[in-house]
Write a structure and sequence with these properties.
The protein has about 180 residues and is of the alpha/beta class. The protein has a domain at about 5-100 and about 155-180: Rossmann fold. Helix content is about 35%, strand content about 20%. The strands form three sheets. A seven-stranded mixed beta sheet has the order 5-2-1-6-7-11-10, sandwiched between helices.
């Protein structure tokens, strides 16, 4: 069974984070919701507090197949300010393990050189941060082991892309049907 971690920093975009958790758990992917602030509840950008599964300090990164960064301007800033997370993202990137980010969070990949020569997308006002990327307006871009997406409106596409990578495209299509989601 695949396992991923979704990182929740103060100010994260609720729909982007929780859509990944919901859809991946429906597909029997083990998902840990991880607090970046050493508190068991983390407030999103719209004041919604969500109870976490783990604190960052409790993680054994060798257990994970993918690291997922939800967006939100403040949430993204708080993720990027966390040195431990940045070190682990770098290790995953170097090892060819999956990393995924949506909305403002792909800017973190751009700042670290992870997007050089790759197709990538992000929230429109963050596209200038996708350093080295061929920037697209697609809902999701998968370039080897790097997945990016544009924002709240693409959260289902992003989540289904993660399912497709970890469980196969057939499972992603089946899941889209079960949630009554039309992919055009």
């Amino acid at each position: 069974m695949s396992k991923l971690a979704v990182f929740f920093a103060e100010g994260y975009e609720e729909i982007e984070a929780l859509t990944v958790v919901d859809i991946c758990r429906r597909c029997e992917i083990q998902v840990d919701m991880v607090s970046m602030n050493n508190e068991w509840a983390v407030a999103g950008s719209h004041g919604i507090n969500v109870e976490m599964d783990k604190l960052f300090s409790q993680l054994d990164f060798s257990e994970y197949d993918m690291l997922v960064l939800p967006g939100g301007k403040l949430g993204t800033e708080n993720l990027e300010a966390h040195q431990g997370l940045m070190e682990q993202l770098g290790a995953f990137y170097r090892d060819g393990k999956y990393i995924a980010a949506i909305c403002a969070a792909p800017s973190i990949f751009g700042h670290r050189g992870f997007l050089n020569g790759r197709r990538a997308c992000s929230y429109p006002s963050f596209e200038s941060h996708l350093v080295g990327a061929k920037v697209t307006e697609g809902p999701v871009e998968i370039s080897d082991h790097v997945i990016t997406s544009r924002g709240m409106g693409t959260a289902i596409d992003f989540s289904l892309a993660i399912v497709g990578v970890l469980c196969g495209e057939e499972k992603a299509q089946e899941t889209a049907k079960t949630i009554v989601y039309r992919q055009d």
